[in-house]
Amino acid sequence: MIKTRNQPTGDRNWKWGAAVLSVVVVFPLAALVWIATSPAGDIWGHLITTVLPGSFATTLWLMVGVGVITIVIGVSTAWLVTMCEFPGRRYMDWALLVPLAVPTYIVAFAYVEVFDYTGPLQTWLRWAFGFKNSRDYWFPELRSLGGAIFVMSMVLYPYVYLTTRASFMIQSASLLDVSRTLGATPTSLFFRVALPLSRPAIAIGASLALMECLNDIGAVTFFGVRTLTFSVYDIWLNRSSLAAASQLSLAMLLMVFALLWLERQGRKRQKFHSHGAAKHRMPLRFQLSTRGSVLALVVCLLPILLGFVVPALLLADSASRRLDELFSDAFLSAAGNTLTLAIIASLVTVAVSVVLAYALRLRPGRKLQSAVRLASIGYAIPGTVLAIGILIPLAALDNFIAGQAKVWLGFSTGLLLIGNGTGIVYAYVIRFLAVSYGQIESGLAKISPHLDMAARTLGRTETNTLVQVHLPILKPVLLSALLLTFVDCMKELPATILLRPFNFETLATTVFEAASREAFGEAALPSLAIVLVGLLPVIFLARTSATSFRTKTTKRLAPADPVPTAPAE
Amino acid sequence: MRSTVRAASALFMLTAATTASMPALADGEVNIYSYRQPFLIQPLLDAFTQETGVKTNVIFAKKGLGERISAEGENSPADVLLTVDIGRLDGAKQLGITQPVSSDVVNENIPAQYRDPEGHWVGLTNRARIIYASKDRVQQDTITYEELADPKWQGKICTRSGQHVYTIGLIASMIAHHGEARTEEWLVGVRDNLARKPTGNDRAQVKAIFSGECDLSIGNTYYMGKMETNEKDPEQKEWAKSVKLLFPNSEDRGSHVNLAGVVLAKHAPNKDNAVKLIEFLSGGNAQQIYAETNFEYPVTPGVEVSDRVKSWGDLTPDTLSLAEIAKHRKTASELVDKVGFDNGPAS
Question: What is the ipTM of this complex?
């Protein structure tokens, strides 16, 4: 541990501030652990012999399937757009990111409509071949494990694409050119040089995708795919055993830790070559033949079509028939609520991230570091479970405030924080802290500690250094963290449902409610709104990647572990 | 310094309290936590507001509301919890989030068999869990639950998840009538007759009959009315046209019914209005709306079912006591797991 230097007392607040924030964020997790210790009764023996082996296997297959497909799509398209030249490549470069805008529950919902008996595909089949009903022909059942793997992969592959593409770009020039002069063919270059070097990047991307799929509840419920997350819900809500549900979700956290560990390992190893790539120039791309170009285009277009165009068109088509609802009170207030919540939550999240990351930069103590890491695992907790973890401490606090208010002011405040939506914001901050913290942490790590020293020498306090030096430099990182968090908040469903105040709808809950009535048409407009707003950060990502891909790649790939700020005296 | 802090916090409390009290605490309101979908209850709530002037606030969720009330504790804004199925009504009582309703109006309106003996829950409507059958492919006009296990239906039955409260209720009633061992056999038989893995809700099963995936489905009656009158999604009218309703076991013990009802929250801040709402819901006016708009079976004697509901056939309800069904729910849920019902037919 690095000893604290002589600090003006005001600046010691950073450490304490960060510590307090970490505790606040970790509190619901602690609540879950506490609930998990209460006896679950005889439920486990029954579950282990009946339900759990199946849901464990299902989860494993889902992760294997989604892992393999996202890696195949992500890596091959990343290779094509960075290393090959073909007509339309520049558009593919950003268009491949677009499916990221579609939440898994919406893509699942849309695809059921596409593949459904009454959907366009089967209607056409029946018309074309003269079938009368579904007994006359075989059609794959989308509401299945295979279907879940398909729809999730189609919107989650951009995680792998994003990290792998950045890695290809960084290795680029020097290394690949050397390999080429040594006689490597494009194929051997890919398999023997680029791919092994990109393994860490692929691991990062895939672990992000898998975390999303492990955590998903909307799509799996809709498809009847009984994953472990599904079981957590089932145990808690159908079998009324909160204790057993918390125990299972804590067990699931072990899987998440494994993924996080994988990601950390990836980031650590990334250090080596990202240092070698200080001087950048774009690699020479392989010029593809006409046939090769067509093939490359197909490979790139297919995931874009399946992950974005098809579901978006379908939504747009349904929504266009209900455009009058755009100005209905219900839609406007849902949109307004969504915006308000997401804006507040993303601002808070980014602010908390800055405090944590900066405090850790100032005092990279092990305790604080563990606390911060613990604080960022909220991303991996199923929303409903997290909601329960939040409800309990928050309601206790509310009841305490109400009690105090009664004593001091003579009237009760009721459930203040839950009643005004603070609970939802709290949940969002915990869930999406990892998203923004990761970016800000690595953004900060990129800023040379010499700047800190210079600022301090010039008499700035630590706080002033942050405000006057770091934040301005971090502006693009802050913006991108804000955007990503904003969209994640906007898409969030399970915690929102459970923690919302009276008469309160968001776009996501409107979609959910219509979906639960199998009323696709009514869900189309809010779904489309979510997808369209979700495009914003994607466009932003694409733009920053076009103008200064160095910033982005280093941001994405810089080691997550902070560089020690200053040598100890 | 300290006094400024205290003044500031008092001010904070005050503003916070005034803003917080707007939806939750003001007079003339009642706060409803609802497992029942907004479109089902809104007509009733509108009528209630019109009659009494009491404003209604609603939170809807399919799951977890009881747990929320429990966590919120003594300051919970919840006045009433509207829910379906005896399992959930009884579950709320077990969770300790209820208080007895003592109202002569309610006791007069609702027959004792539809009320908790201690008054912790009040049943409001009955819904029969019956069989939807394809008009084209199913010739017979009567059916029994037992028959669903008959191999003649192999690959022809669709249903929602076995762990859904409605299915659990039905299985629990089978256990009550036939015992655990025979019910397990029956459940295996039904499972092997399934056309596909149980997914989707009751309407989705009717859609599957429409598309030809299956011939029979298990579902609640009122969905028929909701589909038949669906102006927003006219496609659903087509689904409804493809099926007829068979009321199982009409010849012997009658069809299984499940109860939708209401509980009064233990710490209800607007208890008077809450009781007023429960009284209203048990009264003729509301029961009429349940019958006409929601196509459910009113529990208040003297209120007729709607003509549309009548047109589907006559309901002979199984008179098995609700307590008996509630008692077997846990076993039912375990049987569903044991036979792997939700994994679909064994291949």
Answer: 0.72
